[in-house]
Design a protein that fits this description.
Layout (H helix, E strand, L loop, with lengths): L1 H26 L12 E2 L3 E2 L7 E3 L3 E2 L8 E9 L11 E7 L10 H6 L1 E7 L1 E3 L6 E3 L16 E9 L2 E10 L7 E2 L19 E3 L14 E7 L5 E7 L22 E6 L4 E5 L20 E10 L5 E12 L4 E8 L10
Parallel strand pairs: 2-11, 15-20
Antiparallel strand pairs: 1-4, 3-9, 5-10, 6-7, 8-9, 10-11, 12-19, 13-19, 14-20, 15-17, 16-17, 18-19
Length: 340
């Protein structure tokens, strides 16, 4: 009998202990995340170029703050303290819903990977603190330099509290539809009629090697509002040079374009804009993926039957949709295609 009573006492003690432990657990406070003093932005002044998507990354140090963190822009205002609804309202912007990889086989396939969403033209990514200016922003609606631009603050928060970072500066630069550009970033006016190619290794008919600054010039021209890119070559008198002279050029893979048409004066492609479509390395871009790269090639025999592997290269961007023409102007001498 005593054994039974003892067993019941133990069971009752265990049961009461479990109830008490359960009750204590229910009364424990929820674990709170922390906001650390060493969490900070490393950059407070931003100068995006309007008309192109610009992501400002690696501008935030998490320090010892607990994650996840939430970010939002607050108190967006002009430099004079006036409201700035142009940067707080939502506008339609183009975003990728599926990653671009350079293997797309048509314009339709590229466009199927994009969609339209509504966003503020300048916003902070909600969990990283990175800023992005969308390509839909232009100087007709956004204050651009030389205007003093905008000032804004950022609220960072988690369940442990919130912290404010104040007096960021946003001073957008005017549109430059292509790079390399001959447009002044503040006034938007042209400083020259042309830009330089990236590299050139060609000899002129007078026997002198070309240099990139004086002998070959590149002209960009928007001729319509479609989706095409046309390449032309002209001599010193602006007479057309047959693209077939650059006989070693990989025309099929020169740009990520479609429906190529080549004749004695030009080469034309249907293309998606911007060029490149994304900052992702492909066969059509530089190694970083930041710019498209075109290389025009031909071989010739110089004196002594020495093989000369000649080329003309351009790294470039075009940000504005349209029917664009890129003309390579051999300004001081005609290129020598024939053997010596």
């Amino acid at each position: 009998m005593k054994n039974i009573q003892y067993t019941l006492q133990i069971a009752l003690t265990v049961l009461m202990g479990g109830v008490l432990l359960s009750s204590c657990r229910k009364n424990l406070p929820t674990e709170r995340l922390s906001i650390a003093n060493d969490t900070q932005y490393t950059e407070y002044s931003y100068q995006p170029v309007l008309g192109r998507n610009t992501l400002f990354a690696n501008n935030f140090q998490y320090g010892n703050s607990s994650r996840p963190l939430d970010f939002k822009i607050v108190n967006m205002r002009t430099f004079n303290g006036e409201p700035a609804p142009e940067l707080t309202k939502n506008y339609p912007v183009t975003v990728w819903k599926t990653a671009y990889d350079g293997g797309e086989q048509s314009l339709a396939e590229i466009e199927a990977k994009r969609t339209i969403e509504n966003h503020p033209l300048f916003e902070v990514r909600p969990h990283s603190g990175e800023f992005i200016m969308w390509a839909a922003a232009n100087s007709n609606m956004i204050k651009a330099q030389p205007d003093s631009g905008y000032v804004f603050d950022v609220e960072m928060s988690n369940s442990g509290g919130r912290k404010y970072f104040q007096n960021f500066r946003l001073r957008p630069l005017r549109e430059r539809s292509y790079e390399p550009s001959n447009l002044d970033p503040v006034t938007g006016q042209g400083t020259s009629v042309s830009v330089n190619p990236t590299s050139v290794s060609i000899t002129g008919e007078r026997g002198q090697p070309f240099n990139t600054r004086d002998d070959v010039q590149v002209l960009f021209k928007k001729a319509g509002n479609g989706n095409s890119l046309t390449i032309k070559f002209v001599d010193t008198l602006s007479n057309p040079i047959n693209p077939d002279k650059f006989e070693n050029t990989d025309w099929k893979n020169l740009v990520h374009g479609f429906n190529m048409v080549k004749d004695a004066t030009k080469v034309r492609y249907d293309v998606a804009y911007p060029i490149p479509c994304s900052a992702y390395p492909t066969r059509y871009t530089t190694s970083s993926g930041e710019q498209a790269r075109m290389v025009f090639k031909f071989d010739r025999l110089g004196f002594g039957n020495v093989l000369q592997q000649c080329h003309l290269a351009l790294n470039f961007n075009i940000y504005e949709k349209g029917d664009w023409e890129i003309t390579f102007w051999f300004k001081r001498d005609k290129p020598k295609f024939d053997n010596d």
